[in-house]
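job 3f2a | input accepted
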Amino acid sequence: MTRMSHRAQRRAARVARIGLDRAACAQPRPAGSDGTRVALCGIVRALSFAVALGLMPGCLIPQQVQIDPPGNTPPSILDLSARPAGYRPIGSHIDLGDLEGPDGGLPTAITLEALVRDPDIDETLEYQVWVNYPATPLSVTRVQDFVDADADDDPTVRRFRYELPITAVSATACSRVELFITGGFSARGDLRDPVVPGDLGTATWWVVADETVPVSSCPEAP
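job 3f2a | predicted structure (222 res):
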């Protein structure tokens, strides 16, 4: 079956409309039927116009719909839901005098653990650990390819674990330890700034090496 041309379609529509019009409006008029005939004529003419429209060729004009990509959600750092023995919550003050290593002396490192919640499950995260920033800027630890870990089978949650060397905090009476996590750190300006403004999760711990120093003297975050 061949497709009718636009010209042929218009001709067929006109013929159909005229045929319906004549069929309804050209009949002999019985006495007293003028009002009914006029009403019927109007209805049929409307129907014939609709038929003609149905036969007319039509086209759809495609419209481009712009869908904005979802915004990036910054990571958030949370305490573990199930806390093992010796767990150090975010914001806590860690007293080196309370720590004991396998040989009875100080351990070589302090374990810091947290959960990182990030709905952008395909995003690779990076983290930095700072001690007493900006006094000791060389204490930064920058690790790429933050690896996912088992976190209660929730794909938006990753488990963070870091071994803070005792030597990084034992020489200062009270040290501020900061954890920064983001999708990427800036290579220009402040190394702590994320590439995407606001895309940053932070957590802080304090480590007290000298028991004679009050906790209130610990440095606060800048």
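job 3f2a | The chain has two domains: 6-55, 76-217.
job 3f2a | closed
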